[in-house]
Amino acid sequence: MKRILLAIIAVAWMGSNGWAQTDQTSSERKKVAVVLSGGGAKGMAHIGVLKILERAGIPIDIITGTSMGSIIGGLYAIGYNANALDSMVRVQDWSYVITDREDMRRQSLNDRKKQNTYAFTTGLTIGKKDMQAGGIIKGKNLAELFQQLCTGYTDSLDFTRDLRIPFACVATNIIDNSEVDFHSGRLPQAMRASMAIPAAFSPVRIGSKVLVDGGLKNNYPADIAREMGADIIIGVTVQGAPKEAEDLGGTMSILSQIIDVNCKNKYDENLAITDLHLQVDTKGYGSASFSQSAIDTLIHRGEELAMRHWDDIVALKKRIGISDSFRPNIYQPLRPQVMTEKRHISCFTFENMTSRDKLFLYEKFKLNRTDSIDAELEQELTTSMRVDLFYQTAECRVVPEGDGVRVILSAGNRKTVQLHAGFRYDTEEYAAVQLGLDIPLKTNIPINTDITLRLGKRLMARGELTMHPRSFTRPTLSCSFRRNDVDIYMDGNRSYNILYNQFQGEFTPINFDLRHFNLQLGLRWDYMHYRSKLGSETSTQVTLKDEHFFSYRARMHYNSEDNWYFPTRGARFSAEYAYVTNNFTKLNQRAADGTLIGKKTGMSEVSANWRMSFTFGDRFTLQPMLYGRLLFGSVVPPVFSNAIGGDWFAHYVEQQMPFAGIGNIEYVSHQFVAAQLQAQQRIATNNYVLLRVSCGQQADEMKELLDHRTLLGVQACYSYNTMFGPVGVTLGYSNRTKKTYFYLNVGYEF
Hints:
Number of strands: 39
Radius of gyration: 31 Å
Strand content: 35-45%
Structural class: alpha+beta
Number of helices: 16
Helix content: 10-25%
Largest sheet: 16 strands, antiparallel, barrel
Distance between the termini: 30 Å
């Protein structure tokens, strides 16, 4: 994000140098105000109009706005010219910004997995009211973005005196239904209050006021511009044409109409005092049209409209009292401080943190012996405040002081209990629901409790305790229950079904969980209770008896991919070694009557997968992947046998590996290695066409791996990436099944 902001600021700075010219004083000409209406995403059109006003050389002495108009106007007032605003809105991931999702670049691998498993997350407050509640979206990411963009203007300010251009915006106090005009205060907070759409975004609380979208009282605040001394008012609105009865056919259209009708307050009166009114045609787009194509079109429509009024805009120069050659100053925003080298620390300051949390950071990072800070330490401190101390937001700032810098560690509100919900449907298991509950325990050693429940053909319940000591490891204790109902296929034909319960407990004393990397060392206990085995006439006669196992496990995961399901860059690597026993050292063999008949060396399992992404252009990506699972030992319990099929690792059973062209679980030999090449083509914004080709080798002994027939498979998939997870249709074929299979998936994988 910081690199992107620096690039935007560089554009703005270069633009300002090109426009540099002494402005005429206000006493020599009339004051010009630009008024920007609310309208959600449709307000992107304001940027196109501002581009043309700059090109025409119109000075802007005052700017006012509501909702999205307050955001565009506020940023313009601190120095973001139209080109910088254009660049800024295009590089944002709006699907992230307008939600409360966590930034994947700051998350551990476990957090990233959760974010790409659950479609819905909300906070629960137990025992007291959540003062951040009141909307589906709390606006955490919007608030962070405004804080970053308003570098240098985040303290309490007078918007008329302290900003580059005098500015004001509007909010609505729902306590008494009054209009609240911001002429001072914290600029990011004022902008956030002005766009707090009721029920969608949580309101902003300032003292006794509860503030929501200003459009409910004054969606086009030309009267405020006049009160601020404007002689000439140029107004931009983005509301669509009035709707007729036949246009109101759905819930969203009715809700939109209610908002539009309530936003008519003062509208006609304010239009009457406007010297040049520019009404942008936003037909076909709504308040939530934040896609890249929509933003591009809306900005372009703003430019087109302003160009159609070019003669009117130029004619204003005479009324303003300036010449045709006049060019105003175009400002640039302040540059944020980004550390590129170590800087000496003069002192630490903690904001909104308890003494226990301060002590935690001092001991974990040995701050009393740390005399310098760089970008890496800055990021580690911020991550620890969020992950270990459970703060929703955290910031590490450096302020020059003497011959060094003062490091300010500022924390936001504590995380509440988080409820997650995921939903999926596929043609194999039909509907499934997964619920998750994260409970942060603010003890002397912070502990996070994670409870998961899966409902469907495969039932699962899991509880996990993760301790966050001052060391960099996070010991974990977990227990789970799975009721597995699994169909096993042989050469494409359903051979038998196994219904069994699996109880599992695991202690992981070594657990390094970083942004891209996770290392775990631990001990696991498994107990298998087989309830039934139903087979066809051709099924193999395998006798399954209840059994338990103890295994020693070492796992390593690395993932730097930019997208969980449709990556275009980065790499993913996983490896695991397990030594499986049933008496802590060896595997006991027993007869049918339970009599011990021998002891064998435990089974060793080695598995790994590695994938890279190579993008050509901005839409086509090739992803080669190598993977395999090797089992060693004189005895291999059937429950640990290798299985292939489907699109994901460990989807139906833990040892499952994907293979193109095979849709169901097929057991293979103890030694299995494979390679896959995937071609991914993005169409428009969220549509993907995927083509996968897989080949694999299997054998009972490593030396025989190349002596058997090569398994081949191919599949084609169309997938649409929605906010509730991918929706995909797959067709595949393999030389093992010798038949085509069809698979439909809706939702995230779990």
